[in-house]
Design goal:
The chain has helices at 2-26, 34-40, 82-87; strands at 30-31, 44-47, 50-63, 69-75, 90-94, 98-100, 103-105, 108-114, 124-130, 136-144, 153-157, 162-167, 170-176. With 177 residues, the protein is of the alpha+beta class. A hairpin with a 2-residue loop joins strand 6 (98-100) and strand 7 (103-105).
C-alpha cells in the first residue's frame, strides 16, 4: 500500500513538473514597460566612426518567454553627414537570434534604414540592415498596412516566439530562433 502510494505520488510529481515546463514554454512574449525598455537601450550606438544618440521617445522593446530581449529605436542623426542620416535611421538590439521575413539576425546590434521611397504608399518598402562598420548585411521586405498611421516603431507580440515589427506604416513578421 505504501509502495503504491509512493509510486502514485512520484507519477503526480513528474506530471506536474512536465505541465509546468510546458506552460513556461507556451508563455507569450511580452512588451517591456517603458522603463525596462529604456534601461535595455544604450544612450548612443557606435555606427562607423560615429556615436549616434538613440531617440528615447521612439522605441519599443520585447521580452520572450525565456527572458531574452530585443529592442528597436529611432536614431537622432540630425547634424550628422547626409550619408550617415541615410544609412542609420534605426538600431535593432537583440540578446537572441531572430528572424525577420527570410533574414536570420544573430544576437547583437544592427543599424537599419528604409530605402528611399519611390512611390507614396507603395505596397512594399525595403529595410536595409548594416553592421556597425557600414557594410550592408541584408535587405528585408516590409509590407504596407493601409490601416496604420504614424512614424513610430513598435513590436506586437504574436505568440511565445513570434512578433510583428512595425516601422511607420510598414510591417514585417518576426520570430525568435
Amino acid at each position: 500500500m505504501k509502495r503504491t502510494l509512493l509510486s502514485g505520488l512520484a507519477v503526480l510529481i513528474v506530471l506536474a513538473s512536465s505541465l509546468l515546463a510546458l506552460r513556461a514554454q507556451e508563455e507569450p512574449c511580452r512588451l517591456l514597460d517603458p522603463e525596462s525598455g529604456r534601461r535595455f537601450l544604450p544612450d548612443r550606438v557606435p555606427m562607423e566612426a560615429e556615436l549616434i544618440p538613440v531617440d528615447g521617445k521612439n522605441y519599443s522593446a520585447l521580452q520572450f518567454a525565456n527572458k531574452n530581449r530585443i529592442a528597436i529605436a529611432a536614431l537622432v542623426t540630425a547634424g550628422y553627414a547626409k550619408e550617415i542620416q541615410q544609412r542609420y535611421q534605426y538600431v535593432l538590439i537583440s540578446e537572441t537570434r531572430i528572424r525577420l521575413d527570410r533574414w536570420s539576425i544573430p544576437a547583437g546590434m544592427v543599424g537599419l534604414s528604409m530605402e528611399p521611397e519611390t512611390q507614396k504608399d507603395a505596397p512594399t518598402r525595403i529595410l536595409i540592415a548594416r553592421d556597425f562598420s557600414g557594410t550592408e548585411i541584408d535587405r528585408i521586405t516590409l509590407q504596407l498596412d493601409p490601416n496604420a498611421s504614424g512614424s513610430s516603431v513598435s513590436f506586437t507580440p504574436k505568440g511565445s516566439r513570434e512578433f510583428e515589427l512595425r516601422i511607420g506604416r510598414y510591417l514585417v513578421q518576426g520570430s525568435q530562433r
